[in-house]
Design brief:
alpha+beta; 6 helices; about 20% helix
Length: about 270
Protein backbone atom coordinates (compact mmCIF):
# COMPACT_ATOMS: atom_id res chain seq x y z
CA UNK A 1 0.00 0.00 0.00
CA UNK A 2 1.02 3.65 -0.38
CA UNK A 3 3.93 4.83 -2.53
CA UNK A 4 6.07 2.22 -4.25
CA UNK A 5 9.35 2.40 -6.13
CA UNK A 6 8.93 3.56 -9.75
CA UNK A 7 8.52 0.70 -12.15
CA UNK A 8 6.72 -1.70 -9.84
CA UNK A 9 3.49 -3.37 -10.84
CA UNK A 10 0.23 -1.91 -12.09
CA UNK A 11 0.19 1.43 -10.30
CA UNK A 12 -0.18 5.15 -10.89
CA UNK A 13 2.85 7.47 -11.05
CA UNK A 14 2.87 10.44 -8.68
CA UNK A 15 5.34 13.25 -8.06
CA UNK A 16 5.84 15.93 -5.43
CA UNK A 17 7.01 19.18 -7.02
CA UNK A 18 7.94 22.51 -5.42
CA UNK A 19 6.34 25.11 -7.71
CA UNK A 20 7.35 28.76 -8.03
CA UNK A 21 10.69 27.64 -6.63
CA UNK A 22 14.25 27.36 -7.98
CA UNK A 23 15.48 25.16 -5.13
CA UNK A 24 13.89 22.36 -3.08
CA UNK A 25 11.78 23.08 0.01
CA UNK A 26 10.76 26.56 -1.14
CA UNK A 27 7.75 27.72 -3.11
CA UNK A 28 4.52 25.76 -3.02
CA UNK A 29 4.51 21.94 -3.00
CA UNK A 30 2.03 20.22 -5.30
CA UNK A 31 1.43 16.54 -5.92
CA UNK A 32 1.00 15.51 -9.56
CA UNK A 33 -0.79 12.25 -10.39
CA UNK A 34 -0.67 11.17 -14.07
CA UNK A 35 -3.44 8.66 -14.77
CA UNK A 36 -3.93 6.41 -17.77
CA UNK A 37 -7.71 6.90 -17.56
CA UNK A 38 -10.20 9.04 -15.62
CA UNK A 39 -10.77 8.11 -11.99
CA UNK A 40 -13.82 8.94 -9.89
CA UNK A 41 -13.96 12.08 -7.80
CA UNK A 42 -14.07 10.24 -4.46
CA UNK A 43 -10.78 8.45 -5.25
CA UNK A 44 -9.07 11.69 -6.26
CA UNK A 45 -10.27 13.40 -3.10
CA UNK A 46 -8.90 10.58 -0.95
CA UNK A 47 -5.53 10.74 -2.70
CA UNK A 48 -5.42 14.51 -2.21
CA UNK A 49 -6.18 14.08 1.49
CA UNK A 50 -3.42 11.44 1.72
CA UNK A 51 -0.86 13.70 0.00
CA UNK A 52 -1.93 16.54 2.32
CA UNK A 53 -0.44 19.42 0.32
CA UNK A 54 -2.42 22.48 -0.70
CA UNK A 55 -3.25 20.98 -4.11
CA UNK A 56 -2.92 17.68 -5.90
CA UNK A 57 -3.21 17.75 -9.71
CA UNK A 58 -4.82 14.79 -11.52
CA UNK A 59 -4.35 14.55 -15.28
CA UNK A 60 -4.70 12.14 -18.15
CA UNK A 61 -4.12 12.45 -21.89
CA UNK A 62 -7.24 13.22 -23.94
CA UNK A 63 -7.86 12.61 -27.63
CA UNK A 64 -6.61 15.94 -29.03
CA UNK A 65 -3.14 15.71 -27.38
CA UNK A 66 -4.26 17.94 -24.51
CA UNK A 67 -4.57 16.72 -20.92
CA UNK A 68 -7.68 16.81 -18.78
CA UNK A 69 -6.64 18.40 -15.49
CA UNK A 70 -8.38 18.67 -12.11
CA UNK A 71 -7.16 20.09 -8.81
CA UNK A 72 -8.02 19.00 -5.26
CA UNK A 73 -7.08 20.38 -1.87
CA UNK A 74 -7.18 17.91 1.05
CA UNK A 75 -10.84 18.92 1.48
CA UNK A 76 -12.31 20.04 -1.86
CA UNK A 77 -12.01 20.31 -5.63
CA UNK A 78 -11.14 23.83 -6.84
CA UNK A 79 -11.88 25.71 -10.07
CA UNK A 80 -8.40 27.12 -10.71
CA UNK A 81 -4.90 26.44 -9.39
CA UNK A 82 -1.70 27.95 -10.72
CA UNK A 83 1.07 26.19 -8.82
CA UNK A 84 -0.30 22.68 -9.41
CA UNK A 85 -0.69 23.48 -13.13
CA UNK A 86 2.92 24.63 -13.24
CA UNK A 87 3.93 21.43 -11.44
CA UNK A 88 1.91 19.30 -13.88
CA UNK A 89 3.57 20.91 -16.92
CA UNK A 90 6.99 20.45 -15.30
CA UNK A 91 6.29 16.73 -14.79
CA UNK A 92 5.13 16.23 -18.39
CA UNK A 93 8.39 17.63 -19.73
CA UNK A 94 10.68 16.09 -17.12
CA UNK A 95 9.16 12.60 -17.53
CA UNK A 96 9.40 12.72 -21.32
CA UNK A 97 5.64 12.71 -21.90
CA UNK A 98 6.07 16.00 -23.77
CA UNK A 99 9.06 17.34 -25.66
CA UNK A 100 10.54 20.51 -24.10
CA UNK A 101 9.61 22.53 -27.20
CA UNK A 102 5.98 21.35 -27.07
CA UNK A 103 3.41 23.49 -25.29
CA UNK A 104 1.45 21.77 -22.51
CA UNK A 105 -2.30 22.13 -22.98
CA UNK A 106 -4.82 21.47 -20.23
CA UNK A 107 -8.63 21.30 -20.28
CA UNK A 108 -9.96 22.37 -16.89
CA UNK A 109 -12.97 23.76 -15.04
CA UNK A 110 -11.58 27.19 -15.98
CA UNK A 111 -11.25 26.39 -19.68
CA UNK A 112 -8.15 25.68 -21.76
CA UNK A 113 -4.88 26.56 -20.01
CA UNK A 114 -1.44 26.34 -21.62
CA UNK A 115 2.16 26.34 -20.41
CA UNK A 116 5.45 26.72 -22.29
CA UNK A 117 9.11 26.57 -21.34
CA UNK A 118 10.94 29.89 -21.60
CA UNK A 119 14.17 31.54 -20.50
CA UNK A 120 12.69 32.63 -17.15
CA UNK A 121 10.93 29.36 -16.42
CA UNK A 122 7.48 27.96 -17.18
CA UNK A 123 5.09 30.54 -18.61
CA UNK A 124 1.40 29.80 -18.11
CA UNK A 125 -1.54 31.41 -19.91
CA UNK A 126 -4.37 31.85 -17.40
CA UNK A 127 -7.68 33.75 -17.34
CA UNK A 128 -7.63 37.18 -15.74
CA UNK A 129 -9.81 37.33 -12.63
CA UNK A 130 -10.10 41.07 -11.88
CA UNK A 131 -11.88 42.15 -8.72
CA UNK A 132 -14.70 44.64 -8.34
CA UNK A 133 -14.82 46.94 -5.30
CA UNK A 134 -16.90 45.90 -2.31
CA UNK A 135 -17.44 47.26 1.18
CA UNK A 136 -15.41 45.22 3.67
CA UNK A 137 -17.64 43.42 6.15
CA UNK A 138 -17.12 43.80 9.90
CA UNK A 139 -16.25 40.09 9.99
CA UNK A 140 -13.50 40.55 7.39
CA UNK A 141 -12.01 43.50 9.26
CA UNK A 142 -12.13 41.60 12.54
CA UNK A 143 -10.53 38.52 10.96
CA UNK A 144 -7.64 40.55 9.52
CA UNK A 145 -7.18 43.00 12.36
CA UNK A 146 -6.92 46.15 10.21
CA UNK A 147 -9.06 48.40 7.98
CA UNK A 148 -8.15 47.81 4.31
CA UNK A 149 -7.13 50.58 1.94
CA UNK A 150 -9.14 48.76 -0.74
CA UNK A 151 -11.36 45.68 -0.83
CA UNK A 152 -12.49 43.88 -3.97
CA UNK A 153 -13.93 40.50 -4.91
CA UNK A 154 -14.02 38.23 -7.94
CA UNK A 155 -15.81 34.90 -8.50
CA UNK A 156 -13.39 33.15 -6.13
CA UNK A 157 -11.62 35.42 -3.66
CA UNK A 158 -11.66 38.66 -1.72
CA UNK A 159 -8.63 40.91 -2.34
CA UNK A 160 -7.54 43.37 0.35
CA UNK A 161 -4.87 46.04 0.01
CA UNK A 162 -2.96 46.81 3.22
CA UNK A 163 -1.09 50.03 3.99
CA UNK A 164 2.38 48.47 3.86
CA UNK A 165 4.35 45.29 3.26
CA UNK A 166 5.05 45.13 7.00
CA UNK A 167 1.31 44.81 7.62
CA UNK A 168 1.09 42.00 5.05
CA UNK A 169 3.99 40.11 6.60
CA UNK A 170 2.90 40.52 10.23
CA UNK A 171 -0.80 39.74 9.90
CA UNK A 172 -2.11 36.88 12.05
CA UNK A 173 -5.63 36.31 10.76
CA UNK A 174 -8.49 34.63 12.55
CA UNK A 175 -8.91 31.57 10.33
CA UNK A 176 -12.28 30.60 11.78
CA UNK A 177 -13.71 33.99 10.83
CA UNK A 178 -12.12 33.84 7.37
CA UNK A 179 -13.55 30.37 6.78
CA UNK A 180 -17.07 31.68 7.42
CA UNK A 181 -16.86 34.37 4.70
CA UNK A 182 -18.69 33.88 1.40
CA UNK A 183 -15.61 33.29 -0.76
CA UNK A 184 -12.94 30.72 -1.55
CA UNK A 185 -10.25 32.73 0.23
CA UNK A 186 -8.74 36.11 1.12
CA UNK A 187 -5.70 37.68 -0.55
CA UNK A 188 -3.85 40.41 1.35
CA UNK A 189 -1.45 42.57 -0.67
CA UNK A 190 0.58 45.78 -0.65
CA UNK A 191 3.21 47.62 -2.65
CA UNK A 192 6.70 46.31 -2.09
CA UNK A 193 9.08 47.96 0.34
CA UNK A 194 11.34 50.61 -1.20
CA UNK A 195 14.24 49.13 -3.22
CA UNK A 196 12.74 45.62 -3.15
CA UNK A 197 13.44 43.33 -6.11
CA UNK A 198 9.69 42.94 -6.69
CA UNK A 199 6.74 45.28 -7.25
CA UNK A 200 4.20 43.96 -4.77
CA UNK A 201 3.87 41.43 -1.98
CA UNK A 202 0.95 39.25 -0.95
CA UNK A 203 -0.26 36.43 1.25
CA UNK A 204 -3.27 34.18 0.61
CA UNK A 205 -5.55 32.37 3.05
CA UNK A 206 -8.01 29.57 2.21
CA UNK A 207 -9.25 27.98 5.46
CA UNK A 208 -12.68 27.20 3.99
CA UNK A 209 -11.07 24.61 1.65
CA UNK A 210 -8.55 23.26 4.14
CA UNK A 211 -5.54 25.52 3.46
CA UNK A 212 -5.04 28.12 6.19
CA UNK A 213 -2.20 29.82 4.30
CA UNK A 214 -1.14 28.86 0.80
CA UNK A 215 2.63 29.24 0.26
CA UNK A 216 2.49 30.62 -3.32
CA UNK A 217 -0.82 30.98 -5.15
CA UNK A 218 -0.82 31.25 -8.93
CA UNK A 219 -4.58 31.79 -9.22
CA UNK A 220 -4.45 34.68 -6.74
CA UNK A 221 -2.16 36.48 -9.18
CA UNK A 222 -4.90 36.31 -11.81
CA UNK A 223 -6.49 39.00 -9.62
CA UNK A 224 -3.30 40.61 -8.30
CA UNK A 225 -1.84 41.09 -11.78
CA UNK A 226 -4.64 43.27 -13.21
CA UNK A 227 -4.97 45.08 -9.88
CA UNK A 228 -1.32 46.15 -9.60
CA UNK A 229 -0.79 46.68 -13.33
CA UNK A 230 -3.41 49.43 -13.22
CA UNK A 231 -2.07 51.03 -10.03
CA UNK A 232 1.62 50.82 -10.86
CA UNK A 233 1.21 51.50 -14.62
CA UNK A 234 3.37 48.50 -15.52
CA UNK A 235 2.89 45.87 -18.23
CA UNK A 236 5.02 43.30 -16.41
CA UNK A 237 5.34 42.90 -12.67
CA UNK A 238 7.52 40.91 -10.32
CA UNK A 239 5.64 39.47 -7.38
CA UNK A 240 6.61 37.94 -4.06
CA UNK A 241 4.28 35.86 -1.92
CA UNK A 242 5.49 36.39 1.62
CA UNK A 243 4.51 33.09 3.21
CA UNK A 244 7.00 31.25 5.46
CA UNK A 245 8.20 29.29 2.39
CA UNK A 246 7.98 32.25 0.04
CA UNK A 247 8.00 32.33 -3.75
CA UNK A 248 8.47 34.60 -6.77
CA UNK A 249 6.45 35.04 -9.93
CA UNK A 250 6.58 37.18 -13.06
CA UNK A 251 3.09 38.46 -13.87
CA UNK A 252 2.06 39.97 -17.19
CA UNK A 253 -1.64 40.84 -17.73
CA UNK A 254 -2.75 40.76 -21.38
CA UNK A 255 -6.36 41.82 -22.01
CA UNK A 256 -8.53 39.10 -20.44
CA UNK A 257 -5.57 36.79 -19.76
CA UNK A 258 -2.64 36.78 -17.32
CA UNK A 259 0.76 35.26 -18.08
CA UNK A 260 2.32 33.72 -14.96
CA UNK A 261 5.96 32.62 -15.02
CA UNK A 262 7.80 30.57 -12.42
CA UNK A 263 10.17 27.67 -11.92
CA UNK A 264 9.70 24.19 -10.44
CA UNK A 265 11.79 21.48 -8.76
CA UNK A 266 10.92 17.79 -8.33
CA UNK A 267 11.51 16.53 -4.79
CA UNK A 268 9.85 13.09 -4.89
CA UNK A 269 8.76 10.54 -7.50
CA UNK A 270 6.93 7.30 -6.81
CA UNK A 271 3.84 5.26 -7.58
CA UNK A 272 0.47 4.86 -5.92
CA UNK A 273 -0.41 1.19 -5.42
CA UNK A 274 -4.13 1.89 -4.86
Amino acid sequence: MGIQVIGSGNSTPIWLVDAFANEPFTGNPAAVCVMDQPRDRAWMQKVAAEMNVSETAFLYASADTAYDLRWFTPKAEVDLCGHATLAAAHVLWESGRLNPDTKARFDTRSGRLTAALGQDGIRMDFPAEPVSPITPSPELIEALGFIPRYTGQNRMDILVEADSEDTVRLIKPDFALLAALDCRGVIVTSRAKPNAAYDFASRAFYPSIGVDEDPVTGSAHCALGPYWAKRLHKDELRAYQASPRGGYLIVRPQADRVMLTGQAVTVLAGRLSV
